[in-house]
Amino acid sequence: MTNYEIMFIVKTTMEADNIKKSIENMKKIITDDKGKIVETKDMGEKKLAYPIKKEINGYYYVLKVEAKPETISEFNRRALIDETILRHLIIKLDEE
User: Fold this and answer.
1) Would you list the domain boundaries of the chain?
2) What is the CATH number assigned to the segment(s) 2-92?
3) What is the Cα–Cα distance from 22 to 76, expressed in whole angstroms?
4) Does the predicted model carry a pTM greater than 0.85?
């Protein structure tokens, strides 16, 4: 398993329940494929540097995970399809 840090931004124009559901769906992608979520960081709602899909605010969320590369590929694919996710970034962490 490889260590990754994943940051994603969720639309804030949705209801609070839908925001939480979207975050849980993204976490479920990792855990369903036997990945492990090591740390979660809820950074809250922030103003975006520039509008993305006509949104000016986003709900930031960071996950540190241990997962297989195939799991991360699936996460990337699903994040691109999901209309509630404005942006996402996946960083492979160095082995220590």
Assistant:
1) 2-92
2) 3.30.70.60
3) 14
4) yes
